[in-house]
Each structure stands twice: as structure tokens, then as C-alpha cells.
Design goal:
single chain; mainly alpha; five-stranded mixed sheet; 21 helices; globular
């Protein structure tokens, strides 16, 4: 056998082994992170632990739809409330998404695009983050990926079974995360366009039936509609200011690549900018040359339009209604983004170039995944460890604002001789009431609150948990100053703003 043939055979043999190793490692890393639960996760678990009948009312004050919380409720019944246990639901959903991503890529561009899709998805820092977080975003990605496959199949053959699956997934999306509504709307507009563009009744039949199936599926949202309208009027996103729509696309792209502070994220971000653009506008001429066509590639035109249309609808509507955008909401478009990026790799006609590009994306993605494993998302354990070790019976823990409560109180849940309250209303720290949140905080009097804290503490120590990065830090700082006027104080944990959720604790001893 010639040397070149031996080398080719060796490459062909090693490639499946390398791909298998990447996929195995990506699955393992989806169930492995050292950080304690941060605020959003702890809050999700506290709501999901409630009796089923109480979850809808709790969510009316929280601002989310119920499906994920119901699933997590049953998951907790089986596996418990440990950090690894509650996060494992997202990990399982993320693993199930990987084969669906492969089938979605194969439908889009054959086996090469299928393998690229699954490898990009499997090693994405964004996908890793939400696979290890007790939130609904892995469920969103699973439903969108499955919905893409169901919709494509129904457009080919609009049988009753395929249309029923489209309807079911549409209904599940409406009840999982509100940003899914923008994707449903964007896809609906596309189907209307296909219906009107069709030359005859036969051409209109499939898109019209799929559109009707989506409308029927959306009826699952009707029982939740009154809660949604109440949330729209009274909860919103009081934790951040509205953002101009044009800043959200770059912010989303950066977050897809990982943490902007990390060097590998900047490099990965370059690929995640170029590859989707090549997928939409690029065409390979030969192994060394590409051309750009502003008319766009028909194969990914609809995927790109749905992705950008959903993001545009969502960011514009958010800005007009005074709410904000966070890149985690982009989980609803992330599977489409990966498909378009994977198609962009296929534009390169040289197998060697495709291999190098995918290998770099995989390596850079794994670097972000490892950071996800070893990086603390919160200082809650530092704060809780100090209180647990040094508290006395009857001590008073005060959280300011109340958003610091869920993550720290979760770690103190087995200590029964502590009293725990939150600013502004002395409520329990396990949940946050977002209803008319800004108005209630604005009405709160820091001096009156501090005086009440001192009365309640009486002769006990006050442990004051403060996060300077959250809302109304001026009022929380004023409360701390008033307490310091009456009692000697020692800062036990200093907030570290390099942590995603940073908070500290000050001990105010009795005189």
C-alpha cells in the first residue's frame, strides 16, 4: 500500500474515534459543574417545589409560563433538590437535543452538515451553560430543534400525525418561554408568504395546513393568557433597563461564544460571525475560492429569516414595552443559528479546510465548557458558610435586596434557629415577588426598614447580605449605614464583581 493511502486510511479510522470522544466528553460536561445554584436557579427550584396547584399563582408574581416548572416539580419528586439533581433535568434535555440536531442538519445539507451541526451544538459554551443550569432554556432548545424537524416533515407530507406533532410542539413552546412567541410569529409569517406565493391550490395546501396546525397548537396558551396579561402589566423585567434593538444582535453573538472576558470566546465569536454569513451568502467555487451572493442561499434562507425575524420582533417589542432583553432569551433561535453556521462550513469545498474550521470551533468551545465547570456563578456559598459557622440561635439574616435571598437561603435551609427576612417587605427569602416591583421598592423607606430590623433583632446578631450589583443598591447601602450607627460591624465577605452573582455579608453585633 502506498504511503498516501496508508495516511488516508489512518485519517478515516481516527476521525470517527475523535468525533465519538468529543460527543462523549460533551455529554459528561453537561452534568458537571462545581458552582452552587445562583438566584434564577434557586428561585426556579423554590417555585417548582410548591404543590402543583400553587405553582401557577407563584408564577403570576414571577413572570414566566408554567411548563418547565411542572416538569421540574415531577423531576424533584423523583431525584430530590440537590444541585446536581435539579440541574440534571436540563442536562438530559440537552443530551436528547444532540441527535435531533444531527437529523436537522442532515435534512438541511446532508451528512456533512449533520455532523458539523451536532459538533457545534455539542461543544457550544452557550449550550453547555444552559445544560448545567436549572432553568428552562435547554427545554427551549430541545423544542425548537424538534419543532424544526416536525415542521420540515409536515411541509413535505402534511399528514394528520405530522401536523399533530407540529401543533403539540407549538403549544409546548408557548408555555415554556415567552420569547418563543416571537419565533412562532416569524414562522407563521413565513408560512403565510408561502401560501400566497404558491401558484396553485396544491402548492398552498402544505404551508396552509402547517399554519393551521400551529394556530391550533397555540390554543394551549389560552388557559394561561390571563396570567400572561397580568404579568405583562405588573412584572416585566424590573431588574434592567430597556435596550436599543440594534445592540442585541452583537450581544447575542458574543454570548453564543461564551463569556466576553475570556480570550477563547473572542476567537470563537469570530467564527460564529463569519460562518452564518457564509451560510447565507457564500458559495464555494473550488477548493480555494468562494463567492458572495447577496441574493442568499435558498437552502438556509428560511432558517436565517426565521432566526433574525424572531430576534427583531422580540427586541423591538421589548423596547417599545419598556422591558429588556437578555441573551439567554435567544435560546429560542440558537438551534437555527447553529444550523446556519454549520451550513456555512459546508461552503468550503476543501475537506481539509472544513476539518480545520470545525476542529477550531470544537477546541474553542471546549475551552468555554471547562470554564463553565470550574467557575463559580455566585458567592452564595461564601456568604452562607460564614453565617452557618458563626451564627447564634435567633440571629437575624437580612437580605437586601430580596434578590440575594433565594441562593443564600437555599444553602442555609437546614439551619432552623435563624430568622431570615428581605428588603423591602420582610418577606421570606425563598422567592421574589416581581409584581409592581419598582413601585414597591421606591415606596420603601430605608430608615424605617432599618429601625424595624433593629427592633426585630433585639439582642441578636444581624447578618446583612448585600449585593451592590442589583437594583436599589443606594437604599441597601443607606440601610447598612444606619445599622452601623447603632452597632459595631465587621465585613465578613466582600462582594467580588468578577463573579456573575456577587454578594457580601456584614455582621452587626449587638452592643
Amino acid at each position: 500500500m502506498a504511503p498516501n493511502s496508508e495516511m488516508t486510511t489512518r485519517r478515516i479510522t481516527l476521525l470517527p474515534i475523535a468525533v465519538g470522544a468529543v460527543l462523549v466528553a460533551s455529554v459528561v460536561l453537561r452534568f458537571w459543574t462545581q458552582s452552587d445554584l445562583w438566584f434564577d436557579e434557586a428561585l426556579s427550584v423554590n417555585i417548582a417545589r410548591l404543590p402543583l396547584s400553587e405553582i401557577p399563582d407563584a408564577l403570576r408574581h414571577d413572570g414566566h409560563p408554567p411548563l418547565y416548572y411542572f416538569l421540574l416539580h415531577f423531576w424533584i419528586d423523583v431525584f430530590g433538590i440537590g444541585d446536581s439533581a435539579v440541574r440534571a433535568l436540563s442536562g438530559v434535555l440537552a443530551v436528547v437535543t444532540l441527535p435531533l440536531a444531527w437529523f436537522a442538519g442532515r435534512r438541511l445539507g446532508g451528512r456533512p452538515v449533520a455532523w458539523t451541526t451536532v459538533l457545534v451544538f455539542a461543544t457550544s459554551p452557550y449550550a453547555f451553560r444552559y445544560a448545567t443550569e436549572a432553568r428552562m432554556y435547554s427545554l427551549v432548545m430541545l423544542l425548537v430543534t424538534g419543532g424544526y424537524l416536525a415542521l420540515r416533515r409536515a411541509l413535505e407530507v402534511p399528514s394528520l400525525g405530522r401536523l399533530a406533532l407540529v401543533a403539540a410542539i407549538t403549544g409546548a413552546l408557548t408555555l415554556t418561554q415567552y420569547w418563543n412567541l416571537y419565533l412562532i410569529a416569524a414562522v407563521g409569517v413565513g408560512l403565510l408568504y408561502l401560501t400566497r406565493k404558491a401558484a396553485d391550490a396544491a402548492g398552498r395546501r402544505a404551508p396552509l395546513r402547517v399554519l393551521i396546525a400551529m394556530v391550533i397548537g397555540s390554543l394551549a396558551f389560552v388557559p394561561w393568557l390571563s396570567s400572561f396579561l397580568e404579568q405583562m402589566a405588573h412584572t416585566g423585567t424590573p431588574w434592567a433597563e430597556p435596550q436599543y434593538p440594534w445592540v442585541n444582535l452583537p450581544n447575542t453573538l458574543i454570548t453564543f461564544a461564551g463569556d466576553a472576558k475570556d480570550g477563547e470566546a473572542a476567537l470563537l465569536g469570530f467564527f460564529l460571525l463569519v460562518l452564518p454569513m457564509l451560510g447565507v451568502f457564500g458559495r464555494g467555487l473550488d477548493r480555494r475560492r468562494l463567492e458572495l451572493d447577496l441574493h442568499t442561499q435558498p437552502a438556509v434562507r428560511w432558517e436565517a429569516a426565521a432566526m433574525l425575524g424572531a430576534l427583531l420582533l422580540g427586541t423591538v417589542f421589548s423596547y417599545l414595552t419598556g422591558t429588556t432583553f437578555h441573551p439567554r432569551y435567544a435560546a429560542t433561535i440558537f438551534p437555527l443559528f447553529v444550523l446556519v453556521a454549520a451550513f456555512g462550513v459546508a461552503v468550503f469545498l476543501s475537506p481539509r479546510v472544513r476539518f480545520v474550521v470545525v476542529a477550531l470551533v470544537v477546541v474553542l468551545g471546549f475551552a468555554g465548557a471547562i470554564r463553565n465547570v470550574v467557575t463559580d456563578r455566585t458567592q452564595a456559598s461564601e456568604v452562607a458558610d460564614v453565617i452557618a459557622a458563626e451564627h447564634g440561635a435567633g440571629d437575624l439574616v437580612v437580605y437586601c435586596p430580596d434578590q440575594t435571598g433565594p441562593s443564600v437561603s437555599r444553602l442555609l435551609r437546614d439551619i432552623t434557629d435563624l430568622r431570615q427576612v428581605t428588603f423591602p417587605a420582610f418577606a421570606a427569602p425563598q422567592r421574589v415577588n416581581w409584581t409592581d416591583y419598582l413601585d414597591r421598592i421606591d415606596r420603601a423607606d430605608p430608615r424605617e426598614f432599618a429601625a424595624d430590623v433593629l427592633r426585630r433583632a433585639d439582642g441578636a446578631t444581624i447578618w446583612y447580605v448585600l449585593s451592590p450589583g442589583l437594583l436599589h443598591q443606594e437604599k441597601c447601602g443607606e440601610i447598612a449605614n444606619i445599622l452601623a450607627e447603632s452597632r459595631p460591624s465587621v465585613e465578613k465577605v466582600t462582594p467580588d464583581d468578577s463573579t456573575y452573582e456577587f454578594e457580601g455579608v456584614t455582621e452587626f453585633r449587638p452592643q
